[in-house]
Every structure is written in structure tokens, then in C-alpha cells.
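lol so apparently i was supposed to do this last week
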Amino acid sequence: MLTFHFDNRFVNELPGDSEEGPRRRQVQGACWSRVLPTPVAAPRLLAWSPEVAALLDLAAEEVVSSEFAEVFTGNRQLPGMQPYAACYGGHQFGHWAGQLGDGRAISLGEVVNRAGQRWELQLKGAGPTPYARRADGRAVLRSSIREFLCSEAMHHLGVPTTRALCLTATGEPVLRDMMYDGNPRHEPGAVVCRVAPSFIRFGHFEIPSSRGDHELLARLVDFTIRRDFPDILGGDTEEKRARWFTTVCERTALMVAHWMRVGFVHGVMNTDNMSILGLTIDYGPYGWIDNYDPEWTPNTTDEENRRYRFGQQAQIAHWNLARLAEALAPLFSSEAPLQAGLERFIQVYSGEYSPMMAAKFGFAALRDDDGELIAEALGLLQLAEVDMTLFFRALAMIDPAAATLEPLREAFYRDDLMHSHEAAFQSWLARYAARARADAEPMEVRKQRMNDVNPRYVLRNYLAQEAIDQAEQGDISRVHELLEVMRRPYDEQPEYARYAEKRPDWARNRPGCSMLSCSS
Ligand code: AMP
Ligand code: MG
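anyway here it is w/ adenosine monophosphate bound
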């Protein structure tokens, strides 16, 4: 039998809703509502992460048991579980949206593992909650595959993220109009069990603040500091809260710098999708950069304004932190500490970004005029439609003593653009090679430095879509294979070279590959 040691601090230390069950409602004066997952017809395990199972002290035999599938689709609760949905609000696409909350995510409890680490288990797609508004509380297989694979891929890339223990099928159809064009269809339903030390979002603080409930706001802030930021000790309450906000700003900056390093576009950076721990959370219409383009967003809902485009993610994170600061302001006697936190975001982000770019280009340390060389390369990559991931791995193959464009050619999507920009690339490459020679180190050293930060494998949009197409036909093997590849994204893995290839032409404008709706 599955056993975990639960210590459910969120529900035991914070006020809950007096009403139980999923009746849709505004929930005042409480951080959470008691609600059980709605049982499903035919729970079946489709995929699981061995690393996350290990974090939870689970043996493989336990994971493949029928009990596991029952528990992690929400059909059965284990002793110690106290399922709940959290109340939060948020700014969506720049506008205050009021109460949102866990509409289809249900937390089961907080596991403390043998190493003493706390991991909250949360089922996404487990049925309606008081926060489901008009929606059904369910999730479809395609978006669940995307969340499951990407959470784990991001972790292995070294990007702070929530994790995924498993992906299960519910055996029940879910009706979705994927492109919002009046063509709904039934899709297979699924549940992902997400795992993180905390699922608290910026929006958790925004909702009590928006209602003028400063007492609840203060309780939640101090709880978050106690449980999720145990290193923040000493000083009076306001000092602790100030240090906490600064830490949130720092972690958020670090997270976005990593996104920029690996070419990840979140797609829906609403404040309800921002983790207080600076973890990438809520994998919806996210995407990976194929041809380098800071203007690109995968999210069709955001096509017009491109608010959440690749190149604007740091500004948006800062904007979101400013909304959090506003929500927290009633707890501070002056705005200065909050302003200082926001300032810190900018410092940390630029402090991370520049050395990270230097490493991506293989420089031992950033020099004064490197910024220009880097900006010029990025400009060329965009103009000539060059694949970001392939470019940086190929650049590591350039011999500074005899630099030719040859290794870079495979990274171009279009021959015409390669030819029209060839002279510009040649000229850039000559200066790049001179710069690399100035580091006076063996080529292998530079190459290793680059390959440590430039992945060979990322979860390209078309790769996830191929796995989804097969899974919808009943074959889950591609999901397993992708998970396997993404466990070692910086290694060559020649047997999986096919998964490093650039986006094929068929995927250029295909839904799911280059554009995604929020429908999930
Ligand atoms: P998202 O854009 O996915 O971050 O979702 C925004 C809000 O809508 C959150 O409160 C979600 O819980 C809720 N939501 C999204 N899809 C569903 C669904 N199928 N059923 C219930 N709530 C949902
Ligand atoms: Mg969300």
C-alpha cells in the first residue's frame, strides 16, 4: 500500500472556506476550499518521472500499481491527505481579473520525504472546484502531455520549475474547441500530478489585498515566509517581509534569465501564473524558440499585442512583481523596501543575463565590447531565421584559428536568407573568432563551456505535437522516448539525433507546433 508522511501546513495554518464542495462561488476570508477530486471512469498510468518518484521515496513497483493510478487520478485518497483548492486572483493580460483560484487543480497534501523535504502533490484536471467558474475542471491529453514533459525537461535543463510525478488517463472524454473557431470535439481526458515545495502564486496575495482583507494578507505573507523561505530569519516583521519580497524578485529574475538562455516562452505570464518561489509554473500555450525571434509568442490569444513574446519576458516579470508590490503595500509603513526589491530585480536580471550570454558565446568572461558582438549576432539570427538551439551548439564547433561558416549552415531555415546574409555572417564570424582567440585557451575548454549552457535537446513544439498525435492514437511510446531524451539535454546522445533536428516545414504553421490556444 502507498504510504506518505503528510504534514499539510497550508490547510492547517491558514483559514479555510466554511463551505465544502465544488459549488461555484466567491470565497472571502479564506485561502482555500475543501473539495475532493471527482472520480473518473478508467484510471490508467501513461507516464511517470523516475526522478520525481525518487523525491517522494516511491519504488517503481509502487508507481505501476493499480492503487497508484487510482490515487493519482483522484479516485481514491490516502490517509493523511486533505484535498483542497486554493483561492487566488490575478492580473490577466494586463488587467485585474478578480478571483480566479484553482479551477481544476486540487492539492492532495504536503508530503515530507525521508530527507525531510516538503513536496506538495497537486492533481491538475481532477474535476471542478469552487473556482472553476463556467469550466469543467478537466484537462485534455494534449495539454497534459505538454505539461508533464515540459516540467521535467525544464528541470533537467537547470531551469527552476514545478515538477511532474505522473501523467494518467481518465478514460473519459473532454469537450474542447481547440482553436476557438466553433469546432468543438471530444478529446481524451488526463490528469497530471504536479509536485513543488509550494504552489503559492503572486495572485494568492493579490486577492485578499484587493478585498481590503489586510489581516488575511499578513497571515499569508508570514506563513509563506515561515514555510517556504525558512532562511529568512531575524529582524522585525517588516524587515523580514522586505527581505522576503526582495528574495522573490531575485528568484523571478533568475528564472527568466534561464528562460532566455534555453529559448523558452511561457506564453501566459499572468500574475496568477507566477510562482512565489520563482518556479516556472502552469505550462499552457508555452513554446520553444526555433528560429531566433524575440517577437515570437506561441499564444494565439496574444497574437495581436504579443504581450508575452520571448523578448519581453523580463519586462513582464518586472511588471508582475510591481503588481505584487502594490498588493503588499498595505503591510509596509513606506514603499521604499518594495521599490528596492523591484530595483533588485533589474540588478539581478542584468547581472545574470550578461555572463550567461558570454557563456553561450563561449567567452571566458564578459569584456566591454562583447555586448555589441552579441547583439549583432542576435540581430543576424533574427533576420536570417536561424535556429537558436542549433546555432549555439554549432558555434561551439567553430575553430577560432580557422573559422568558416560551414558548421553553422544546418541552423538556417531558409537558403535564400542564408545567402543574402552570408557576407554579414562572414564578417561577424571573423570578429567572433578573433575575440575567441583572445581568450587564449584550448578549443575544447571553450566548447565545453558552451555546451554546458547551450542545450542540444529542447522540447521543440513539433516534437511534443508528434508525441501527442501518437498518444491520441493510443501509442504513448513517443512520450516515454522524449522524456528519456530530455533527461540529458546537454549530452550529444547520437542515438537520439533526430530529436535535435530543426522544425520541419510541415510544422511551420501547424496548430500545436507554432501556435497554441489557451484551450486545455
Ligand atoms: P490558466 O490560463 O490556465 O492559468 O487558467 C486561468 C484560470 O482558469 C485558473 O483559475 C484555472 O484554474 C482556470 N481554468 C482553466 N481551465 C479550466 C478548466 N477546464 N476547468 C476549471 N477551471 C479552469
Ligand atoms: Mg493558471
